[in-house]
């Protein structure tokens, strides 16, 4: 489909979703965002759903301002994937050992490494800039600097919720590795700190929703936020790179006889801010639950733990600010999913996938998400599909 335009106070709301299918709370959030004085454009992805302040699945372009709640608390959250030389025929019938080895190598939930992972020992890790990155830790907000030890030990860890590590097979039988995670606790604490600062600023007191508080260019608060935001986005990128290195090492050891080669990694943020230029204006583009899909940009759009994912290439739609959806998007809250579904339902919906099937992940059941095929159909003008993957191993926090 192409987009539908819904009137908004300052800008029209461009929706790659049927407005009638979007819950009232999310539609109200979109209207609220469209009232912001600094806004220059709002694009809504097909996986749109209710979030904090701004919906998940929205792209907000502002001039001279940025809204920290519109980035989300998991700054830099995103996806990485890599195609391997293995095929489905190389995989054993019982994948429980492989899942166990992945869980041993990559801490999940609130877990962390005993010591900081030394990235230079990992296969293909991009070490350029690593020392400089940690050297800038002393420049982030005082309020979270005491978390340095935790931040170093959580580097290369998965977290919980909808974060995952997967082994997938594409339609040609090739094996892929894929993972989803962000900036862990340090990113959340930085986000919470700056959202609190923004809400106390005088220019935000008359806003329709206090969660839409912004920082304005040329102020010390904006400078501090941008510093910490971009550092946390980098943390998330390194976090995924280290996990992918650990995942590759597991696969290389488990399939030593076959010998494994890896293609170029694909990696993309889907909760972040970028400086981009549209219609002659320098804008701060916030993607919250959306990936960049500029012409030729590779991206990853996952479904759920039982349905599979897509590797895509952007078509460069300026109307969407060169963006596409970040996944299928939830169609019910975590609490609603827990009330509605049982572990038996989870077992049925994840049949054929080596994964957790206990009550702790019922809120991640595929039925709690929108159908990924429908989401992909709604954004045919934003991305083209390069590969369709189906997971056979899924590790959750």
Automatic annotation (TrEMBL):
**SUPFAM superfamilies, per database record:** Hypothetical protein PH1602
Q: Which reaction does it catalyse?
A: a 3'-end 3'-phospho-ribonucleotide-RNA + a 5'-end dephospho-ribonucleoside-RNA + GTP = a ribonucleotidyl-ribonucleotide-RNA + GMP + diphosphate
Q: Which residues form the active site?
A: 326
Q: Where does GMP bind?
A: 162-166, 270-271, 302-305, 309, 326-329, 396
Q: Which GO terms describe its biological process?
A: DNA repair; RNA processing; RNA repair
Instruction: Identify a single GO molecular function assigned to this protein.
Output: manganese ion binding
For Mn(2+) 1, which residues are the binding ones? 74, 163
Q: What does the note under cofactor report?
A: Binds 2 manganese ions per subunit.
Obligatory cofactor(s) = Mn(2+)
Please tell me which top-level EC class this enzyme sits in. Answer: ligase
Task: Cite a single Pfam family from the UniProt record.
Answer: RtcB
* Source domain of life: Bacteria
What keywords would UniProt list here?
GTP-binding, Ligase, Manganese, Metal-binding, Nucleotide-binding, RNA repair
According to the record, the segments passing through the membrane are: none
UniProt binding sites for Mn(2+) 2: 180, 270
Q: What is its EC number?
A: 6.5.1.8
PANTHER family in UniProt:
RNA-SPLICING LIGASE RTCB
Query: Which protein, by its recorded name, is this?
Result: 3'-phosphate/5'-hydroxy nucleic acid ligase
